[in-house]
Amino acid sequence: MCEQGNETKRLAYAILGFLDEEFRKPTTSADSRESLEVAMQCLETAFGVTIGDVCHKPSKSLREVYQSAPTAGGSTNPTFNLPPSLSNLMSGSSGSQNVQAVQIQLGNTYVSPPSPNVEIKQKADSCKDTGNSYMKDGFFNEALQTYSDAIELDGSNAVYFCNRAAAYIKLNNLESALRDVQIAIQLDPGYARAYGRMGVIHSSLNNNIEAYSCYKKATELDPANESYENNLRVATEILNSHGQGDGQPSTSVASVFQNPALMSMATQMLQDPGMQNMMRSIISNIQTNGAPGGVGNNAGFEQLLQM
Length: 307
Description:
By secondary structure, the protein is mainly alpha-helical. It is built from 16 helices and no strands. It starts with 6 loop residues before the first helix and ends with a helix. The model is unreliable at 75-96, 250-266 and 285-307 (pLDDT under 50).
């Protein structure tokens, strides 16, 4: 249910709207869509708001706010001083690296059915494609059903389970999402995306060491994927700052907005011309390249959303 006048949710919705806009652009790459999807899922879990909660929609979008903000003498460098922990994230530093991964638990053994014939595989792929379209349009229950249809037709395909896990995450059914990525990894032990998605689930559950271990494995399997590298860096920072976690839903992102001092800081940041120029530069980079830039460009904005 929408809570009128909730400024925190209005701000979260504004950021969600910006990310959703970039996610839907046809020029956004698959890897960048994965990064944006992770960011949106974490925001939705942390703040209990989705892109469908239009009652939280502000009068101006985040892009419009920064496009209309005055410049500061042509300066493109922010002058606002961030706290050390946030500064580390913005600069790509993760502090101490003395973090040890743990063994990733894959649950009960999944007995894969025989691979079906070509005709049934094609039907299953069609279901998966339909589910992907539903996900992009925000119809998560429908996506869940069509992914389930694909699995019923071909229960030996790791992609179908991993995609259904994404739908479960959107519906805040983290237990079912975790089981699906466990099965996906059992079916394909080299499936980097499944490890990355498992990391998102563990992050949402505040299982910090498990999240770190999953992101580390995803990075090892796909070292060129900047999303996994960014998530690993953030997971390391969280471990160094907050420890291994307690298995309760994560509040690490939400706590930033619930802290009056940090809310004051955020307000100053939004009013600071240097920060406005930095955000305008980020948006310009996205418009130019069709996706968020590399680690040096999106390490601050995107990683802070991927806790």
